[in-house]
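Why does residue order matter? Because the sequence determines the fold. Keep that principle in mind as you read this record.
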Amino acid sequence: MGYIQEIRKYVGHSPIMATAVVCIIYDKEKGILFEKSSNFGTWCVPGGALEIGESLEDGVKREVKEETSLDIFN
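Structure:
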């Protein structure tokens, strides 16, 4: 997500419009997987902004792997 960090240098914390993906991971026995956001300290599902030229499927695979170490869509 290097390009988002580059944009932040110029716009600070102003809103940025970007295409993003999220993934709801559900297990019948354990329920929905939530993670604590390092940015805001709130509970959320895995997700984030797409890289330039990245497909939705590749983006959700990457974000889930980065944030949970899980491989999905295998």
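The helical segments are 2-11, 56-68.
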